[in-house]
Each structure stands twice: as structure tokens, then as C-alpha cells.
Amino acid sequence: MMHGSILVVSSNTAITDLLKKILAGSGRVVVFSHLRSAFDDIYDDVPNLLIVDIHGDGEVLALLNTLKEDPLFAHLPVLVLLAEDDPAPDWSTFPAEDYIREEDLEKDILSKVALCQARSERIVEVNPLTRLPGNISINRQIQSRLDQGIPFALAYADLDYFKPFNDKYGFSRGDEVIKITGRLMLNIVRNRSNRNVFIGHVGGDDFICIMAPELIEETCQELIDAFDQIVPSFYDPVDRERDYIESQDREGRARRYPIMGISIGIAHVDQGTFTHYGEVTGVASEMKSLAKKEAKSCFRVNRRRL
After folding, report:
1. Distance separating alpha carbons of residues 193 and 216, to the nearest angstrom
2. Which fold has domain 135-303?
3. What residues does each domain of the chain span?
């Protein structure tokens, strides 16, 4: 079974109480009475599964379509709950992976949950730590925009001094830093724009976001400010006070490492400037390498023109 968050949407308390009981061992169960009220939570922390009671909710289909049309949530598996007399969905138009009837919840919900998750992960790879799309989805998103001639900007973010932090404090605390970085990027980007944006997790401490060129630099600066404000809280008080940690370098020698920062490389893409996704990520990576030469968190920009 999955271990993460399962978001349940139903105004029927008997159903939600039953699901919380049955799914208690499958992850954190979060309950909302209506799908619209759940959107902020979904945007803030992408769940592993969305279970939606569609009985009597006239706007649920439109809301689900809005959610699944967003590239960031296309991979989110949806399991719909039907009453006994509800017709089966038309799968050509209904944005869900499977359905279950209320009378079958106790008997079949665990197997349905596992099936939805397996189907989703076969279609789109998702980073298990941040629940953000991975490299295959990232490359597809970039190439699709290139093929359509859509101008965009891509930001490639990487954490500075993450390995020494991980070595000193352990993988568990390192994972928390990775998760909060993904959440910060997701929230800040989504607050700036809900149109044609994409956030992905390359792996490790590397992330990318795609958005309108005129928004990218202000967004990256906001991400830097937020990261620099929150990351010291992950350090022990004594290390936070002296503004560095003591750890070993790759040769095993003792060194002092500053508090983590974030470096971001930005590539601006106009129509015709690039033809392959690898060119875009390559330029953004070069800009990121320039940013990492600075002593503090920053971004560097390439504005390539024809």
C-alpha cells in the first residue's frame, strides 16, 4: 500500500468516517466536504490519491477536468465514489482512473486504491518524495512548448551545500529540506500564475519550473527570499547561530560549510531559438553553474535571441 496523503471529498460523514478507518494504515487521510474547497490543499501538497464522492455534486466534473488538464496534476490518480443507482461514468470524458460504489467500500476500497496508484505510476513517473513529475514529464513539457512555438522561460534550481548538510544531519532531515523546497516552488509559482506553468523534480536537490518569461525573474527572487528565510530552521541552534556546519569533504578532510542556499539558472526561450529540450536544459544548467559561483543564493539569466 502507498504511504502518503489521501484526499477524500464527500459531504457524507458516514462515508468519510468509514474511509478514514479503513485507510488509516495507508497514509494520512485528509477530508473535505466539497472539491472546490480542497483545491488549495491539493496545490499546496500534491496528494497520492484523490477520492471524490460525485453523488449530488453538479460541478464536480468541471472541477476535475480543470484539475487534470493542468500538467502538474495530470498524474494525480482519481477514484470516484458512486451511489447504488448512479450510472457508470463515460470514461471518454470523465477524468478518473476508476470508480467504486458506496456499498462496496468495506470490501473493495483497499484494492481499488492500490490499483489507481499503480495505473497512475505506469503512465507518468512521479518523484515519491515530493509527488512532483520527474524527468520524462519535464522533457515532454519542454519539447511540447518548443514544437508549438510557445515562448516560455525555464528555471533550473539547485541547492548549495546540501550534501554536507545531509552528511551531518542524516537523510531524514535532508528529505525534509527537499520536500519543503518542492512545496515552496509549487506554491510560489502557482500564486504567480495558474496558466501554462509546470513544476518538476529532476531528482535529488534539483528542480525546474516553466512559466511565462515576464514572470520568471520575480518568481525566482521570491523563491530565493523564501528559501533563505526558512532553511536556517533545519539546522541545530548552535550551527544556526555560528552560520556554518562542520563536516567532511569528499577527501575526508574536516571543513566548514555555510548555511544552504539556492542557485537558479534561467533560460528564456523565444520561437525558433531552440529545437530540442536538451538545448534548453543545457543553457539553464550553464546559468545555474554561474549562479553557484556566487557566495549567496541568486539566479543568473540567459536571454537567447535569434
Report:
1. 10
2. Alpha-Beta Plaits (3.30.70)
3. 4-123, 135-303
Q: Which residues pair with 146 in a beta bridge?
A: none
Nine-digit cell string for 210: 516553466
What cell does 127 get?
A: 518523484
Give Cα 29 to chain centroid, integer Å.
Answer: 19
Pick from 7, 20, 81: nearest CA to 46: 7
Q: In the CATH scheme, what is the code of domain 4-123?
A: 3.40.50.2300
Q: What is the pLDDT of residue 89?
A: 74
Helices 135-148 and 277-292, packing angle to 10 deg = 110
Q: Provide the grid cell at 170.
A: 542524516
pTM beyond 0.85: the answer is no
Q: Which is higher by pLDDT, 4 or 264?
A: 264
Residues 6+ apart with CB under 8 A from 162: 174, 177, 204, 205, 260
The position carrying cell 559561483 is 293
22-38 average pLDDT score:
87
Quote the crossing angle between the two packed helices 60-69 and 35-44, to the nearest 10°. 20
Radius of gyration of the chain (CA): 21
Coil/strand/helix, residue 64: helix
- Rounded Cα gap, residues 54 and 51, in angstroms: 10
Band (61; pLDDT cuts 50, 70, 90):
confident
> Between β-strands 261-269 and 298-303, what pairing exists: parallel, antiparallel or unpaired?
parallel
Angle between helices 213-230 and 171-192 (to 10 degrees): 140
35, 63 contact by CB (below 8 A): yes
Which H or E element spans position 177?
helix 171-192
Helix (H, G, I), strand (E, B) or coil at 175: helix
Q: Would the pLDDT of 9 be above 80?
A: yes
